[in-house]
Amino acid sequence: MVTITISGADKSGALARISAFLVRKGYPLKGQQLVDSASGGKLVRVSIDVPHVDGKKLAAEIKSLSPEFRLLDVDSAQSGSAPTVKDIAEKFPDVAALVRAYAESFSADIREHELFEAGKKIGAYHYEKEWSFGSPLKMPTALKRTLVPALEAIAKVEATEAEVHLPGGPLCSSAAPCCAFLGGFMQGFLDAGPLTPNTRVGRLACKAKGSGQCSFKIEYDL
After folding, report:
1. Nearest by Cα to 33 from 21, 43, 22, 23
2. Sheet with 200-205, edge to edge strand ranges
3. Residues 134, 141: contact at Cβ < 8 Å?
4. Separation of alpha carbons 140 and 162, rounded Å
5. Strand ranges of the sheet holding 2-7, from the earlier edge strand across to the other edge
6. Which pLDDT tens digit goes with each residue over 152-211?
7. Cα–Cα distance, 80 to 65 (Å, whole number)
8. What one-character DSSP code corresponds to residue 15?
9. N or C: which end of the chain has fewer CB within 10 A?
């Protein structure tokens, strides 16, 4: 089962319009509801009876229906014990076990993508919750003063102005690598910053592929 959340549903009839559109696209709906967001707007939540959906494809489909609609979240529950992105967000920073369980709920061919996307959501959520107050920072100051301290809550971190190295920790184990989640966390965290939206996070090395540590390159425009 997958639950998706869509924003921009403030106009009358948005729930019925989105639900009908998804049915036409072939998604087997199990439930839908209209809920209030924290900012006061309306959100549509729809449960789809599938084990997995392509988030990028679905986001494009939703956007094609109306530029007002935006896919905010895709929560997959492939077994009764599999945690959701919401579960991980609520337990942050004690998330290592949840992230590993989340990773195991996906097949190997999509696991890294799903981990990265989950990390992006958690990173953005954590930035808005804990780091969005005060004056926004540009790179590389933002990396040193906000991103690295945020990462240190869940992993050991060594950083320069252009690279982040993760020499150890439960998410960087060669036996059960979940470092894609950390890469996604960095991307989502920086995307959420008003002065760091064009920053790009890419992986340089991975313990699971024989490197001594997991490393990421941070590219940005000054």
Report:
1. 43
2. 158-159, 163-166, 214-219, 200-205
3. no
4. 8
5. 29-36, 42-48, 2-7, 70-76
6. 998 889 999 999 999 877 787 655 678 999 999 999 999 999 999 999 999 999 887 888
7. 32
8. H
9. C
